[in-house]
Each structure stands twice: as C-alpha cells, then as structure tokens.
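Q: My labmate handed me this sequence with no annotations at all. I'd like to see what the chain might look like in three dimensions before we decide whether it's worth expressing. Could you predict it?
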Amino acid sequence: MFSDNNKNKLTVVSFIGPTGAGKTKIITALSTKYETEASNYMELDEYQLDNKLITSKWFYFEYWFRKVLSAQKNDYKIILTDRCPYDTCAYVDSGRNELSSIVNSSFKELNDRNITIKKVLITANFDVLQERINKRLLTDQVRIKYHEDDVSYNKRAYEFYMDHKFLCDYVIDTSNISKLQMIDEAKKIIELCQANSEI
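A: Here is what I predict for the chain of 199 residues:
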C-alpha cells in the first residue's frame, strides 16, 4: 500500500459560490502575491456539452485535480483557486447528492495526501447577484449558452450554496461592500489559513 504521509503539505483556498459574487475579482487581485488557478470553465468546454449534465463536469474535475496535485509536486505551500469541483454540484440538473458525495470523497483522499481544501463561499443577496449577471450579459452573451440568462436556474444554484453554507470554512457576503473591502476580507482569510497550516 502506498503511503502519502511524506508528501509536502499544501493548502488550497478555493473561492466558491454563485455566479456574479466576485470570485474572479478576488483571484485576479491576488494573483501577483499568490499562486492562483483561475481556470475558465468555458475554456474547458471543448465538446460543447450542456453544463446541466454531469458528463460535462468530468473535464473540469480532471483539470482541477491535476493542477492541485502539480502544485503539491512543485512544493507550493498554498494556492488559490477560482471555484473547485464542489461548485459543479450547484449547476447540474440531477444527481447533485451523488456528485457531492464523489467530491467529498475525493477531498478526503487529498487530505490523506496532506492537501487541505479550505472552501471560502463568496456570495451576495440573490437580487444583487442577478443584477450583476444581467449587466455582464450585455457585453458577454456567450454566457447565455451556460444558462446565465435563466433566472430560475441561477436561483436554484444560489439556493444550493445557501443550503450547504455549513460545509464552507468561511463566508464573504459581497452585497454591500466595496471591491477593496472584499479583497481585504479575502486576504485576512488567506493569512488565517496560512497560519493554521503552519501549526
């Protein structure tokens, strides 16, 4: 049996949450200070699969886990990611529980390998999120293919995050704070994660 006890310790701070919450803004702002993984789901959609399907998620899974394992192999101590496999559960039409179980089991396996995943939920009031989404769709209509123009779909994803908020390590509500305040909150959380990883 292989032993992973001698693997380098890695902390992965994953900013997760509904569309329009501010995840990418945080990752972009901190990319000069930290190693970041800001994969664009749409760029990985080589086969143009409906993102409501579980099948569409496996390509992202492979990409994300490969990046994380490579970071550990390259001896990084901490990396930040824009989303993580847990996010996929919010956007599938069916099989959420089954998909969530697979993700949780995979994260446990990473933990056994000295890779700790810290989930930071970035969210806002739904009306605020929808307003941001509508504004973005005016200049980026490719997102319509991913159902961002479907309010009921966005609402269902939002409710998934709210119902599972207890599974997250930290929460930042961006409804009524500035971009600078949002980034400062993220920095504090990252510093806390770093401090805890050194204990």
